[in-house]
Amino acid sequence: MDNNALVDLVDDYLEHVRAYGRSSATVSQYRFALLAFLRFCEQEGVSSPDQLTTKLVDRYSASLREQPGAKGRSLSEVSVNTYLRCLNLLLSWLAEQGEAKQLRAKTQKPDAKPLDVLSQSEIQAMIRTADTLRDRLIVRVLAETGCRLGELIGLRVGDLVSHEGNHFLYLRGKTGERSVAIRGELYRQLTTYIAGSRPARPADDQPVFMAQRRRDGKHQPLTESGVQQMIRNLARDAGIKRRVHPHLLRHTYGTEFIAQGGDSVMLAKILGHRSLSMINTVYAHPRQSHIAQAMLDHLRRVESSKVH
């Protein structure tokens, strides 16, 4: 792609994003999405920000919906919206810098689809299938706290906290730090595992979960890929036919929390989300089984009021 003013400004914008502390993964996502826009502009003969127009942005939006995605199918509306959200962030920045007039790509709200989640019986089957205390505890921590995989891997011995009969895990995630409550029985099993998985009393900064393999006679910290493979194998051995991954346990926690009447603001705090947008978009859409159960519960309450 020939160098031009628009290309240079996109590079400046990505540096701006990086300077504000966005993760390398986020910057890479923005770069990937904006390179697609730059290729489109090149085809349209657009090389300067003052050539950007509403009609151009609309044509780009249409081109995204027409181009093939995975397996030859058109891009999903979720994917199209991802491209356009990245573009809108760039367009807003260009306007703030006085490089272009204020423009915005129109996004469409995709139909809400319930998340694929695990049933409690499936989670219990995975726990029963696990051969080691470590693997059982990993499944339980993921399922009972809704933590991210990176937060699980980052757990240190000193992150297990007991205070006035209450027990907590201290998590460090991409959105900051937080404490999540756990049951006393899970806390005791975690401390039992820690004590039995290493020969000497561990320091507070040692990882909670260790890999089975050794290097120089020592167990190594667990890796994300190791947990992902372990979860896949447990699900397969438990007879679960769907693809199961650690984040599915987080989805299950969030979905069940809302379905059981939990507050969305509280769930955002528990899961470590900075805003309610993810909660309302992802978790607040009830599954058909939850709708049916709510209807049955309502009918029971009506019948009970008639009796009394």
Could you characterize what this model shows?
With 308 residues, this protein is mainly α. The protein folds into 2 domains: 5-96, DNA polymerase, domain 1, CATH 1.10.150.130; 120-289, Orthogonal Bundle (hpI Integrase, Chain A). It contains 13 helices and 5 strands. It has helices spanning 5-19, 24-43, 54-66, 77-96, 120-129, 133-145, 149-153, 184-196, 224-237, 246-259, 264-271, 277-283, 288-307, and strands at 160-163, 166-173, 176-182, 210-215, 218-221. The strands form 2 sheets. It has a 3-stranded antiparallel beta sheet. β2 and β3 (176-182) form a beta hairpin. α1 (5-19) runs antiparallel to α2 (24-43). The termini are far apart. 23% of the residues are buried. The model has no long low-confidence stretch (mean pLDDT 85).
Q: Give me the Rg, rounded.
A: 24 Å
State which percent range the strand residues make up. Answer: 5-15%
CATH class of the largest domain: Mainly Alpha
Name the poorly predicted regions: none
In CATH, the architecture of the largest domain is Orthogonal Bundle
How many strands, which pairing sense, and closed or not: the largest β-sheet?
3 strands, antiparallel
Number of strands: 5
Helix percentage range:
55-70%
Which of globular, elongated, flat, extended, rod-shaped describes the shape?
Answer: elongated
N-to-C CA distance? 77 Å
User: Which whole number gives the mean pLDDT?
Assistant: 85
